[in-house]
Write the structure tokens for this entry.
Amino acid sequence: MKILFVNASPHSETSHGYGLAVEMIRSACRTAHSALVKRDLVSTPLPPITQDYAKAITSREPDVSLFDVSEQLIREIEMTDALIINTPMHNFTVPAALKLWIDYVLRVHRTFAVTPEGKVGLMRDRPTFVIVGSGGFHSGERAWQGDFLTPYLRYALASIGLKDAHFVLLQGLTHGEEAVADALQRAREEIARHPLFASDNTIVS
Ligand SMILES: Cc1cc2nc3c(=O)[nH]c(=O)nc-3n(C[C@H](O)[C@H](O)[C@H](O)COP(=O)(O)O)c2cc1C
């Protein structure tokens, strides 16, 4: 089992979602042949999209050296069997660091093709777990704000072929210790139902 772990939380290791991701990685990677590829979008920020890159992706004969960053990020996905993404909700959607990763990974003629029926993903599907940390609530009975993160990210991942996406919500993280413990408990129960983390692979903190 090879896992790509993408972190987009500015709190990195102290983020609740990051801790949960580490538990998931430990649970899934118990065999000797397991491997982990880490991509921390906060400690190692990606360069902004330049004019040259923007021109290259729409050019018929691009200078391929301009795709180096994009290629590296795409290969990190290609070399792994499953993805775990830890992201906070920032102003109802993905944080800028994760948006930049998306802008490099979704590349025409490389990870998706444009057809008369629309964009078609060119990547092999693989389980993708997205841990979404939010201060408040955007789903369920207590929801009081819009959620442009989960539908957007689900759509973006599906457009390159990553359709087996599971969103694990950690809501109410700024509502005190009890709310945090409750969110983590629900998330662990949900994750343990997936075969990658199930039964003898019980999630332990
Ligand atoms: C710039 C910024 C914008 C935020 N926007 C939202 C928001 O729209 N909705 C929400 O519920 N929480 C929002 N929050 C709170 C974070 O989602 C919350 O702190 C969460 O715990 C972050 O998860 P993390 O600890 O894994 O980074 C925002 C935080 C920051 C820093």
